[in-house]
Amino acid sequence: MNGSCTEKMRLVVIGNGMAGLRTVEELLACAPDRYEITVFGAEPYGNYNRILLSAVLCGEKQLADIFINTRQWYADNGITLHAGADKAVARIDRARRQVLAEDGTVADYDRLLIATGSDAIKMAIPGHDYVGVNTFRTIADVNAMLAYATPGKQALVLGGGLLGLEAANGLSQCGMTVTVIHNHADLLNKQLDSSASKLLQAELERRGVQFKMQARLQGLVGDGGQHVRAAQFDDGTALACDLFVMAIGVQPNITVAKAAGLACARGIIVNDAMQTSDAWVYAVGECVEHRGNTFGLVAPLYGQAKVCAQHLAGHSTAQFVNPPMATKLKVSGIKLFSVGDFQGNDQAEHIFFTDPVQGIYKKLVVKANQLVGAVLYGDTADSAWYQELVEQQVNVTPIRDRIIFGKA
């Protein structure tokens, strides 16, 4: 170890995902010589873009295309990377300021950054542990799904949210017969209004994806070898399958933080500086809870990373502000976007534009002369502008009569 390293503070990062490593990148940009950095990751890879897993599943990208930081990048930046299941962090010893991995690896810290992300939710129904029942969260999940993805095989995808529709589209493009099971009358019911949802469903049906809506799943049926073979519903019907994918959401991974005595609710509780209840410990990403909110989209995570890096660098004025949630679906050829309060209420004014021939639908929600929400389907060219108007709380009265037609 050279002389300069001994003067550096020690930063340990638990989690090798997008939020934690974005924080490290921001930190290297603003204070490259402040820390000696050690990263622990439970997957045996460098940092990759989890958002692009759906593109790998449908064959638009190869695994090699989705890596953000290769192992060489860590070496080039003097970062120690411990990656793999045996390197997953088992315990934080806050009294000694140490992190201990499953295989006994120990790292001392002056500052700790927890970025443990979230875990896929697995519905505790009969048969949930059968072979062939998968979640859609990691490279390992995608590889397991691709092993089944041959023409003629049947897949059931539980969940009509963003992740479920991306999984369904990918498996369908691999030649599987795919049915999406959703417990609501509308797809993406948290991101779209009913009109946009119906347009989306019709387009996916044209692509060969089938749907069982407002369905109540009772349990899974297996064969003699305990492999999933069908799903049963409380209306007495059943659907056969070779693969069953649960894509019903994620929950913050707070296990290690909670065991270490850090304040947790749904997520690890952080303040506006991304600091936990322990002043030496920070947290970012899907594992955190900030002012009652948890996070599943990349934009706020990168915002957290920037703020956290500035505090770790000693520039301690930055504060994280949660932006209005914006949604885009990563399915090739389908353009949809929503932001803010797109449902509105009795006090709000709704502005619509529809072009059935082009398959375009737009809805804007204006309240107290401000744009508070938007849904766009088929034409999302003005999505960034609408998002800006929502976030900046602009008075839209001067452009009220033409706002639906976009910025131009």
Summarize the topology:
Elements: H1 3-7, E1 9-14, H2 18-30, E2 35-41, E3 47-48, H3 53-57, E4 67-69, H4 71-76, E5 80-83, E6 89-93, E7 98-101, E8 106-108, E9 111-114, E10 118-120, E11 133-135, H5 139-148, E12 154-158, H6 162-173, E13 177-181, H7 194-206, E14 210-212, E15 217-222, E16 228-233, E17 238-240, E18 243-246, E19 250-252, H8 255-259, E20 268-270, E21 281-283, E22 288-290, H9 298-312, E23 326-328, E24 336-340, E25 349-355, E26 360-367, E27 370-377, H10 383-392
Parallel strand pairs: 1-2, 1-9, 2-5, 9-21, 11-18, 12-13, 12-18, 13-14, 20-22
Antiparallel strand pairs: 3-4, 6-7, 7-8, 10-19, 15-16, 16-17, 23-24, 24-27, 25-26, 26-27
Helix pairs in contact: 2-9
Describe the structure.
With 408 residues, the protein is of the alpha/beta class. It is built from 10 helices and 27 strands. The chain has a 5-stranded parallel β-sheet with strand order 5-2-1-9-21. A hairpin with a 7-residue loop joins strand 23 and strand 24. Helix 2 crosses helix 9. The chain starts with a helix and ends in a 16-residue tail after the last helix.
